[in-house]
Fold this protein.
Amino acid sequence: MLPDLTLPDLTLYSRPGCHLCEQAHAHLLALDYRFAEVDITSDAELERLYGDDIPVLAAGNRVLIKGVFSKGRLSTLKLLLLREARERQSG
């Protein structure tokens, strides 16, 4: 039996009217990612950190992907995150 592996809490940093953000959101949903979406325009510090790079997918302070999100790139990331979760669990 495979252990129940949990991905880290993920955050998608975006802004309204950003077509790349909308695309990233759709790809994340299509691949069954669970994530919180944060509008960076509501926070000056987030705007400073991520304004030129959105969309940005992060796990805590760790930026995982920024800019263009393809389904292939997100599938690969999910495999890497699951491997990390397995290593933490067996660890």
About this structure: Residues 6 and 32 are 12 Å apart (CA to CA). The chain has three helices and four strands. The mean pLDDT is 91.
